[in-house]
Amino acid sequence: MAVHSADKTRIAFDAEGDGPPLVLVTGAFCDRSTPQELAARLAATFTVIRYDRRGRGRSSDTFPYEIDREIEDLEAMIEVAGGSASVYGHSSGASLALYAAAHGSAITKLVAYEPPFSWDPDRARHIRNLQARLEELWAEKRRDDMAELFLTQAIGVPKEGLAAIKEGPHWQGMRALAHTLPYDVALSDNQAMPADTFTKIAVPTLLVAGGNSAAWARTAVETLARDIPNSETLILEGQDHGVTDDVIAPVLEKFLS
Question: What is the pLDDT of residues 82-126, one digit of tens each?
């Protein structure tokens, strides 16, 4: 299935289950197939909508990229859901969901897992340099280099760990989505937004991080909680950035039901 966003970009999606609507928003190296198993677990409680963010899977793209256009894509999914919906965002998908909530999108409740935000000026400069470099590499269609740069400079994978990733089963899928990595990096640059952005979020919001995640993840949710009026935080012990379905599913069911 597909609908068209406000700028006519085609956004592909799947919907399953029965119950109040829930839209899943994925992060880097992900398309709508990524949360398929999570959606299946949640389908007994919610009508779950998972979609290909622009430039991914069967969705089209429109240039130049703008965060506002991605917000409109999410709003198109909320319209599919009936005009309002709960939203769960992971990583840069959490960033997008938070920006949409601040924008006033018709989100009823929001769960954000480890939005990759930082309030460190040096980190902001690093993010902007990384985005510029990724765009340069894409102009030369250097997908492998884009994926490697993101893994080492955004995620922090040690260079010696790249070989194992490149030999693994997910590398070709990561390469296929490399051209969207500048979008994920742009969504991480919260310092480019007005200082009061997150104070505008009025919906109940749960900010989640893994107990085994890097310190930035916990700092991000704790800092956001100070800005978002109707928010709470949750640290999931034993989890990292790749939170498991069997741990996050009951959290979503409890908070969003």
Answer: 999 999 999 999 999 999 999 999 999 999 999 999 999 999 999
The letter for the amino acid at 29 is F
Nearest alpha-carbon partner for 97 in 112, 85, 109: 112
2-4 and 10-17 beta bridge pairing: antiparallel
CA–CA separation, 13 and 77 (whole Å): 8
Q: CA 137 to CA 223: how far, in whole Å?
A: 33
Question: By the 8 A CB rule, do 55 and 29 touch?
Answer: no
DSSP 154: I
Distances (CA, A) of 120 to 18, 162, 219: 43, 27, 11
Cα-flanking dihedrals φ and ψ of residue 85, to 5°?
Answer: -165, 155
**Residue 208: strand pairing partners:** 113, 234
Q: Quick one: pLDDT at residue 117? A: 98
